[in-house]
Design a protein that fits this description.
alpha+beta, Arc Repressor Mutant, subunit A, OB fold (Dihydrolipoamide Acetyltransferase, E2P), 7 helices
Length: 263
């Protein structure tokens, strides 16, 4: 087979972005499979995801890296395929190096002081830089398919439920299953605070106590304490003034809840 080649200037790979999240994400696994198989469809089969999900993985990683990570191959008895670019191969080398360093760090932590489990749990967001104010550790309690999407029921550390709606492809790439410990991330702009009232549909209604106010009294930013150490940042609805130390409900748009893996 001969590959399509084109002259282009060497580009700087954004390693800190493309490998900034957990290495358990199947996107890097898909990239490895493409290197071995020379085909997107075969890589999808090898990693147990759909063809669409495999392409989503490649597109996401290429966007994060800032350079193309694969290129098409034409000709041959199979009619063509795909192979990694030089930058794609460098990303896999970097991923392997980071994986080795991570394992060494975890071994040191596991052999350290008592309560290391708490320390390991708190490491979840270290590798991820994000503008999302709300980052909550949760357990996946239910996975329900709804057409082309999936609804996850997540349990927070205080026992309340939070829902997230993601695509089937994202479910496959993250490899999520019931009982997994993950992170729920969502922007403050996706949270609206309301006074406590009986909800006809309690989905994504998190109950807590207003602990702090930022900005204007009406429609300003609020912080709702769920439990010590666990809080939600959002905004009050205009006209629904909430007092400090008052019980309130944080309504969260389930499509705005992003799932992150910590190990």
């Amino acid at each position: 087979m001969r590959s399509q080649t084109r002259q282009r200037k060497p580009a700087r790979i954004q390693f800190e972005d493309v490998l900034g999240s957990t290495l358990t994400d199947k996107r890097v696994e898909v990239l490895r499979a493409i290197q071995r198989a020379g085909s997107i469809s075969e890589a999808a089969r090898m990693t147990g995801v759909s063809y669409k999900a495999a392409w989503q993985a490649v597109d996401a990683l290429s966007n994060l890296a800032g350079v193309p990570l694969i290129e098409k191959v034409v000709g041959g008895s199979g009619g063509g395929g795909a192979k990694l670019t030089a930058e794609g191969r460098q990303v896999l080398i970097a991923a392997e190096l980071l994986s080795q360093v991570r394992e060494e760090a975890l071994l040191k932590l596991r052999g350290g002081r008592q309560h290391t489990g708490d320390a390991l749990h708190s490491l979840g967001g270290i590798g991820l830089r994000t503008s999302m104010r709300n980052q909550c550790p949760v357990i996946v309690h239910e996975i329900k398919k709804l057409g082309g999407a999936v609804r996850l029921r997540l349990e927070l550390t205080d026992g309340q439920s939070l829902y997230s709606r993601i695509t089937t492809e994202s479910l496959q790439l993250l490899g999520l299953k019931k009982g997994d410990s993950v992170w729920a991330l969502f922007k403050a702009a996706a949270v609206k605070f309301m006074p406590v009232f009986p909800l006809s549909d309690p989905r994504n209604g998190l109950r807590g106590t207003i602990s702090r106010r930022v900005g204007l009294k009406a429609g300003g930013q609020l912080i709702l304490d769920l439990t010590p150490g666990l809080h939600v940042v959002g905004f009050s609805e205009p006209g629904s003034y909430l007092e400090l130390h008052e019980q309130a409900i944080a309504l969260v748009d389930e499509s705005a809840v992003v799932i992150g893996l910590s190990n």
